[in-house]
Design a protein that fits this description.
globular; binds adenosine-5'-diphosphate; 27% strand; alpha+beta; binds magnesium ion; 10 helices; 5-stranded mixed beta sheet
């Protein structure tokens, strides 16, 4: 059973809210404003290396949540922080809080509550080890009721866009595993920044209100996340691989690694969105105002299914999909 089958089978029920399980944010109308609410957990050994930099972790734990708000076009309002800590390490806590609040303050997002517990000690191979550090954040944003956006609004004929570039976070991991070569020090640092300190596209998400018909943030890999838009919007898509934006460092890697990183690598936190072809000029203007590049990588089709075409129009193998916690 995949992660998404599991959620669909056991945790998906009808709701009268605008969006809930299966979207980036739950959308709850409250007068003229709609509240966008999202929650994401980071677990040591699963989402980050146990020796990860504490300040970067504080940043990333909030960033991944703000990224979901960005997909919904919501302005961050506040967040809640729950921690399971193996111990109260003051140097670690100070650095974590620094990273967390630097991002929170940059977005005017206030910490309004949470929960703090001690992670249990575990017996592994006759030894006592710390239970995993676990960080869970719930973030709340606001969007005018008339401007709500979900994964479900893509229409046949819409353009398919992605912000920034994809694949560098996965390239950082590939490099750590010895699979990527030829990166200079500056490129290694840039890829690690993408992995450890993603920049949530909040401003772009807000400026795309009324323009994007559907959006998702790319957290699990471009194609897997695109699938979520296609399923919920009941459409298909054709993606032009040469147009998928990649850094120069990634473009120098072997083609197979490039595809894996850019199409199926996770942790990009870019916005993948659809918009009518008539809105091209406005989309580019919104991106320029937000200070982010956007690339038109394909088209939404009426026929279900996802095709990725190379420069000659030949179909690429697209069996790579995004990260699945329960994949066999
Ligand atoms: P994202 O990557 O945007 O944070 P996920 O891929 O983590 O979203 O989750 C997919 C969808 O399933 C989201 O709408 C999320 O809220 C929902 N979801 C995940 N786990 C659960 C759960 N245990 N109970 C209910 N909904 C869940
Ligand atoms: Mg998301």
């Amino acid at each position: 059973m995949s992660e998404f089958e599991l959620i669909a089978r056991y945790f998906t029920r009808p709701t009268r809210e605008r969006a809930g399980v299966g979207d980036d944010c739950a959308l709850i109308d409250a007068g003229d404003v709609t509240l966008a609410i999202t929650t994401d957990m980071l677990l040591a050994g699963r989402h980050f290396f146990a020796d990860a930099d504490a300040e970067a972790l504080g940043h990333k734990a909030l960033a991944v949540n703000l990224s979901d708000l960005a997909a919904a076009g919501a302005a961050p309002r506040c967040f809640f922080l729950s921690l399971a800590l193996p111990r109260a390490d003051e140097a670690w806590l100070a650095a974590f809080a620094r990273g967390l609040f630097a991002l929170a303050d940059a977005h005017g997002c206030a910490l309004l509550g949470g929960d703090t517990t001690r992670a249990p000690q575990l017996r592994v191979d006759e030894r006592t080890v710390d239970g995993p550090l676990t960080i869970s954040i719930t973030a709340i944003g606001e969007v005018p009721r008339a401007a709500v956006r979900t994964r479900a609004g893509a229409r046949a004929g819409d353009d398919l866009w992605v912000s920034g570039s994809v694949g560098d976070a996965a390239l950082a991991l590939a490099h750590r595993c010895g699979e990527a070569t030829g990166l200079d020090a500056a490129e290694r640092a840039a890829c690690r920044m993408r992995l450890e300190r993603p920049a949530p596209r909040v401003e772009l998400g807000i400026r795309l209100r009324g323009l994007a018909t559907a959006a998702i943030d790319v957290s699990d890999g471009l194609l897997g996340d695109l699938d979520h838009i296609l399923e919920r919007s009941r459409v298909g898509a054709r993606v032009r691989w040469p147009r998928v934006p990649r850094s120069d460092a990634l473009r120098r890697q072997p083609e197979a690694l490039q595809r894996r990183c850019a199409l199926a690598g996770g942790d990009d936190y870019e916005l993948l969105f659809t918009a009518p072809a008539s809105a091209r000029v406005e989309v580019l203007a919104a991106a320029a105002e937000a200070g982010v590049e956007v690339s038109r990588i394909g088209t939404v089709t009426a026929d279900a299914g996802l095709e990725v075409l190379d420069a000659d129009g030949a179909l690429l193998d697209t069996t790579y999909r995004g990260y699945d916690h329960f994949a066999p």
